[in-house]
């Protein structure tokens, strides 16, 4: 069911018909000051658990807007079980990555420290804010989890046995990604995956050997050109979604 409102908001509160939710200070300021919303205006709200709901503003205050929950517009759906591990890059491009991988359906974002990573810390709250904004705009019904940064060795050594890892190797040693993913998924029957993207300078030989040593690693190539980290991330997830994700369900 579609309604005449383009504003979607994420809230951590429970959503149920007839209930009310008081939005936080930042959301309230955005709605009142930026979007000029008034009492009686309709909004769409979601929380990652209860689907999407049509709501109406019942009280307007720059510090605390209250909405009443009217009716459900979408039932809750889940994203494909896909994690995204990557070496963080510069702030503006990090914002871009958080937004775009959310739009593409990633459900867990995992910053990784490699030997050539140039960023030694990230602001998880900033990444989460970018992910929430992207989910609100792309009509997604959930928000990805944002992990704290971890070392590559720990990530690989604790990688779950039941989860395959799409390793995008810049040395072009892997098979073309699309066919490698489809064949591996068919042969293994596994539904859980992760995508691993390296830093701008690539993985070093020790790291590459470690990653390839794991039996659930699927080494793929993203083509003949060396891609920037953010370009590689979007390319890899797009190929995965097309080959075995929710873009390819009609095949």
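-> sequence recovered:
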């Amino acid at each position: 069911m579609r309604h005449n409102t383009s504003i979607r908001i994420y809230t951590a509160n429970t959503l149920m018909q007839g209930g009310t939710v008081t939005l936080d200070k930042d959301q309230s300021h955005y709605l009142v000051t930026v979007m000029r919303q008034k009492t009686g205006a309709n909004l769409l709200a979601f929380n990652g658990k209860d689907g999407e709901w049509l709501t109406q503003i019942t009280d307007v205050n720059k510090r605390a807007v209250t909405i009443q929950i009217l009716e459900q517009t979408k039932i809750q759906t889940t994203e494909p079980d896909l994690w995204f591990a990557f070496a963080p890059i510069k702030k503006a491009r990090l914002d871009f990555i958080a937004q775009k991988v959310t739009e593409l359906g990633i459900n867990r974002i995992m910053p990784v420290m490699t030997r050539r990573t140039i960023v030694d810390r990230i602001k998880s709250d900033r990444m989460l804010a970018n992910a929430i904004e992207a989910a609100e705009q792309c009509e997604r019904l959930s928000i990805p989890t944002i992990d704290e940064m971890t070392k590559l060795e720990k990530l690989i050594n604790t990688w779950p046995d039941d989860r395959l890892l799409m390793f995008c190797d810049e040395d072009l040693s892997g098979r073309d990604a699309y066919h490698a993913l489809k064949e591996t998924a068919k042969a293994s029957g596994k539904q859980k995956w992760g995508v691993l993207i390296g830093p701008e300078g690539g993985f070093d030989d020790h790291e590459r050997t470690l990653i390839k040593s794991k039996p659930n690693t699927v080494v793929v190539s993203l083509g003949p050109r060396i891609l920037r980290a953010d370009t590689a991330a979007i390319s890899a997830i797009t190929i995965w979604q097309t080959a075995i994700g929710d873009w390819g369900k009609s095949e």
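The chain has seven helices and 13 strands.
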